[in-house]
Amino acid sequence: MSPALPEEVPEPPELPTVAPQLRSLRRRAALTLEVAARSAGLSPAHLSRLETGQRQPSLPMLLALARIYGTTVSELLGETPADRDAVIRARDMEATEAGGWTYFQAGAPARGMQALRVHVPHGSQGDIVRVHSGEEWLYVLEGRLRLRLGDTSYRLDPGDSAHFDSLTPHRIAAADPGGAELLFVHTLLQSPGAALCLGPSADSIREV
Asked: What is the per-residue pLDDT across 72-83, written as a single tens digit (0 to 9) for each?
């Protein structure tokens, strides 16, 4: 009987770029895990799992962490373009997935606002309500979108847009099974009180 061959040890999975970036940028901002997690509305254990690649952050989480660390979503994702051209070609836009959403950088990094082209799948992050400093503007390209602002819920069709203060509790969700495509622009105002509020929506919603 021939001796058993040693079992091959599988290679450890490569961490997504965002994982080491999250830790590096937190340390650059001189924030402890506990302080950063509390500012983002997360538990220290959850933030630790994001930094080690055990969990993937949602787009709202990336937005919140970018504000807290004084950086951009692009830098969190490890994107370091050599220049900041005014024109971004469609062929150069690489898809990035975060929390079920797929988005493309539609603007240059490290500017006062960020522009994204986003695909929102149906049922993805539908119960996440966000509150933070700054402003947001969105324009629906395809599909229908449900936008909740405070206690009012709107249905946006292709061609509709919205521009609102991000301190208003807001929620974005696709209204159709096929999801929705939108253009999304947000400012990068920094605020020590910026926080991400996670939780199901209230029952008292008036739809317009």
From this structure: 777 777 765 545
